[in-house]
Structure formats: C-alpha cells, structure tokens
Amino acid sequence: MAQFQRRRHHYYNRLRLVIPLISAVSGVLLIFFAFLSFLAPTPLDSDQLRHRLLQHSTTNKVDENDAVGVSKFRVPKRGMKSNRDIWTSKNSKFYHGCSNASNKFPKVEAVTHPNRYLAIATSGGLNQQRTGITDAVVAARILNATLVIPKLDQKSFWKDSSNFSEIFDVDQFISYLSKDVKIIKQLPRNGKKKISMPTMRVPRKCSERCYHNRVLPVLLKRHAVQLTKFDYRLANKLDTDLQKLRCRVNYHALKFTDPILEMGEKLVHRMRLKSKHYIALHLRFEPDMLAFSGCYYGGGEKEKKVLGAIRRRWKTLHISNPDKERRHGKCPLTPEEVGLMLRALGYGSDVHIYVASGEVYGGEETLAPLKALFPNFYSKETIATKEELEPFSSFSSRMAALDFIVCDESDVFVTNNNGNMAKILAGRRRYFGHKPTIRPNAKKLYRLFLSKSNMTWEAFAAGVRTNQRGFMGEPNEVRPGRGEFHENPSTCICEDSQAKAKKDSGPRKYGKGYDATRKDDVIIDDQNADDEPEWPDTDDYDLNVPLEKGLFNGTLLDYDGATSDYGELEEMLSD
C-alpha cells in the first residue's frame, strides 16, 4: 500500500510540471493566429466573388441582357464574330463537279446485248430509293443489259402509291443516259405474252464480279431478271468510269417532275423573301428512329417505356447501352443541341431556319429550346397553304421531295444525323460547289454537351468550333474513298489547277510555306465508316399523321412482317 502511495505522488508531481508548459504553448499559438488574421484581407461576399470571376472570363464577354439562360452558361443572342464567312466554304472555287465519261468508256450501242433485260424493285423512302435507282443504272451497264424503268416501293412502311413517273421526269432520265445505258419504260412482249421474269436478291455492296457471277448466268438463261429490295446493292468502290456514271445519274439524269419542282421553287423563293441567307435543318428526332438508335435523352421512365415498346417490335435488335451509343457518336443531336452548335459556329438569333422533319418526339416541348435560339423558324407547312400542299400531302415521297429541294438550295445545310437524306445532300452539295454542309461531330460534341453546365459560354463555343473542323463541308474534309460514295463522290470532283496555281503564285500573306488550299482539314471520319449502321430515315413520313395516332399504335410501324436479318432491317428503316 505504501508503495502505491509513493507511485501516485510521483505522477502527481510530474503532471504539475506539464500543465504550465501546455498553457504557455497555447498562449503563443493564440497570439500567432491573431497576428495572421490582422494581416489577412477582408473576405469577399458572394456578389464581389461573382464580379471577380467575371473579370477573369475570356475577351468576348456575354452581356447579361443579351443572352438566353440564367446560369454562368449564358447563350448570346448574336453569333460570335468569326474570321470566316459563315455562309460560304473556304477554297470551294478551286473545285468543281466532273462526271463526263472518258474516251475509253464504250458507247451504249457497242456493249448492250439484245434480249437481256434488268428490272429492279427499290426499297425504302425517297432518298433510299434514289440510291437504288442510281446503282441500278450502273448494274445494267455492268451486265450489258437494257434497264427497265425502276419500280418504286409502294408497300412497306411509307405506303406511298407513287410510281417513278410521278416523282421523276422519266423522259429526262431516259434521254440523258441514252449514251450510257439503254432504258425502256416496260418489258417488251414475246408475241402476245409478257416475258417471264424471275426475281432474286443480290448481297449488299455487290461488286462487278459479284454481278457477273450471280446475275449474269440468270440473264443468259432467262433473258430477264428483277432484283428486289434494291438499295445499297452495289459496291462502294468501282472503276472510275462507273463511278462517274453514278454521278451522271444522281446529279443530272434524276430530275423531279415539273409540279414538284415548281412547288419546291416556290418554297425556296419564299425563304429568300424573308432573308438573304437561310439555313436548312434536316431534323431527325422521330420516336421510331430514337427507339432504333437505342439512345436515351433524359425523359425518365416515360421515355424508356414508350421507346422501349417501339424497340421491341424489332426482335433482332440487340440490347443497347445508351451511354456507349452516345459516347461513340451514334445518337442524333437533340433540337436544343443543334441550336447550341449553330450559335457557337456564329449563327445569331436573326438567322432564318427551314426545318425538314417528321413528327418530333416530345412535340413542341422538344422544339421549344431550338425555337428560343432561332425564332425565325419555318417549315413547308408554315410557308405554304394547305391548298398548295394538297396535291403532295397524301404522298410521303412527294412531300420529302419538296424538303429535298429547299434543303438543296439553302445557303447552309445542317443535319443532326447521318441518314440517307443527309448523305445524299452532302454528296450533292459537294458536287455542286461545296456549299456549306454541317454534320455534327457527335462523338466529340458529346463531351461538351455533357459538361456545359460547368463551363462558360466562351469555352463551350471554342470547343464546338475546334471539334467541328472537318465537318463543315469544306473541300478535302473526307479522304477519297472514305464513307458512302453517295456522300463523298470524290471521283467526280476535280480541282481547278490553273486557278489554284494562280492563287499560289500571288503575294504570300502568311509567309513562305503557306498554302491557301492546303489539306489541313483532311480527317479520318470515323462516323462515316463503311460498316456503320444507318439510322432509320423517316424523312418520307406522311407528315399529316398525328404523333399519337400514327407512331405509337402501329399504323406507321407495320413493317409487313418481322425480319431475322439485321441488314434487311436497316434497309427497311434507313430512309
């Protein structure tokens, strides 16, 4: 017990010595922190902090009274100043379309065999059928056969009863190609009987050798054959003269009928009366296309339920990963995203926009942000009367033809997708002078749209302009042979070497080594890869069918039976 008392007394004495030491150290620390607080600046309140942040923003500041939005991501009403002309393509004057046959391309009389007839049945909507018609002429030339005027698709999906002569000028088609392929309006009779004609289908991207091996033996035996579901049934890469024949068909021989041309030109004229320049936007945002793409746009359970129900109609579609599709640039831009992209590229709220689209998923609520950015918003239904459109409104392909004309004649063509109409018009606008054609670089823009709430407008706009290099319709953007030939007809585009030489020999504004026509925009466009699945193109809808009446109860989604072949599903939906 005595030992315990001595140990307790020892610890007590040590504690009495430590307490004064702790007190002394604490006092020194308090004095030190008080001195620091005296030297520190007064803290900023929230308004002062916001003012400081605005002072550190980039040079092109956005006026709060001249912007759309309330967060720090304020979208200006005016397009930001650019060092380029937003209505023309740089260096386009150095290039022109060239599709004349070479001297080595034999005349039609020398190669066409008697009693050898090729007929084709197209598939899909207007633009998909256009590719089939173009390739059918080339296929007939490969087979040294006489082509029967193509039969248009009147059954699946669009149920348009129009025949070839009600959409295209059939006499122009025959006469323009008379030196290349013999074309007749119908099969001749064998006495009083029609020539019997077997049907067959060739693989997609069928080469010259493929046609010789698969189709020619049938022609030699039966003298006539019909190729069905004929779209994208010809190889992308062919002999130069055959590629040029493709261009002669697509860009010269295929002309719309006079009633369609006259109405289309009226629409163009009315847009020109409103403004010197206008943008045409091909907006693909229909429910079936969104369902097919497997993308998700933040509509919650309602969107998943509605689009999921549509998607289940196609039993061969695999389960998709929406985030992955978006990251890989496979999802079409929303109307709002298209508007933000255009504003970032320099197009202000005073710009007039013509919109070619089917029924937009979400209706006016989905379109509202785009209309807020561009109030001068038009369609054929708003600039033409019902009476004027009445001859066309019951025929989806004729309505699509009107949109095609207005988009083709626009100063700038914009698309939020990579469907058939977008591809056909991109190639056509390249051929006829490289008119600006803006295709969104969806893979790169995805990251910007995802993080825009944490960015200033200036940073966002700079990112858009950087990512859109190579997607603006300039010459040499896409490497020759890359993508679909209908989208990139490089064989049919020639360089004006004399004009270029004259330009190069002029005074050098930027010093030695600068080339005004250098190919600094040549890119590997992974969105145009040959093996990319095509989105379903519904630009040929009957636009008078209400959304709730037509698209969700199966009226427009009756595809005449299921298919087990993914490629055929693409064909069925690709226009």
Tell me what you see in this structure:
One of its GO terms (biological process) is fucose metabolic process. Belongs to the glycosyltransferase GT106 family. Keywords: Carbohydrate metabolism, Fucose metabolism, Glycosyltransferase, Membrane, Transferase, Transmembrane, Transmembrane helix. This is O-fucosyltransferase family protein. InterPro entries: FucosylTrfase_pln, GDP-Fuc_O-FucTrfase. It is a single chain. The chain has 575 residues and is of the alpha/beta class. The chain contains 24 helices and 16 strands. The protein has helices at 2-39, 46-55, 108-111, 126-142, 164-167, 170-176, 208-214, 216-222, 240-253, 258-274, 287-293, 300-311, 322-327, 335-344, 363-373, 380-383, 386-393, 396-409, 420-431, 442-451, 457-467, 497-504, 547-550, 566-573; strands at 67-68, 75-76, 95-97, 117-120, 146-148, 183-184, 189-190, 193-194, 199-200, 224-227, 278-283, 352-357, 377-378, 412-415, 437-438, 493-495. It has a five-stranded parallel β-sheet, with helices on one face. The protein has a five-stranded parallel β-sheet with strand order 13-12-11-14-15. The longest helix is centred in the N-terminal third of the chain and has 38 residues, at 2-39. The protein is elongated, with a radius of gyration of 32 Å. The model is unreliable at 38-65 and 508-574 (pLDDT under 50).
